[in-house]
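Work package 3, deliverable 3.1, input record:
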Amino acid sequence: QKEVEQNSGPLSVPEGAIASLNCTYSDRVSQSFFWYRQYSGKSPELIMSIYSNGDKEDGRFTAQLNKASQYVSLLIRDSQPSDSATYLCAVKADFNLFFGTGTRLTVIP
Amino acid sequence: EAGVVQSPRYKIIEKKQPVAFWCNPISGHNTLYWYRQNLGQGPELLIRYENEEAVDDSQLPKDRFSAERLKGVDSTLKIQPAELGDSAVYLCASSLEAGRLYNEQFFGPGTRLTVL
């Protein structure tokens, strides 16, 4: 069983702050990691992918991967109310994606 | 570039009735996935197609669920008969070959199924 664990939240941060979302996974051979954003009533939207240890930055988003610790995180800088959503961590194993239950983020104006 | 297209967006049926969902993937994506997402959960894979072949249907409840992907493009997922527990959002996603390291999946808008 491929397990992906996320804190379900809710996580509340003030506007302009840094939001930190965390994810751990059980399968040591996983090579690809993804973050999806899902607004209420909408489908998941891919926002970040990361494959190598270290940081990957894209605009206000930074994904961090530590394969030794089986840990992946997403940082959102200068958080905006429009970032309020559920963030799903997904890990690729055996050609398929395994998702966590998501962390609900609320950015308070 | 058009994204993944799904229809219908919403479906309400009574239990024991049949229902079908349709998906058109992103052009050029030969891998197609059907997921089910229950409230408060992440998507869970039902079936994965590589072209027209169902290469992973281990999580598909085959007593009532069936799927097809004729000609390796559009796909249909069917439930017959539907049960109350089938109420969920059914998501279709597509990607390039699943074996690629850089294999990003893109989701359609989903079909919200309510079984009464």
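The interface with chain B takes residues 4, 8, 31-32, 34, 36, 42-46, 49, 51, 88, 90, 92, 95-97, 99-102 of chain A (CB under 8 Å).
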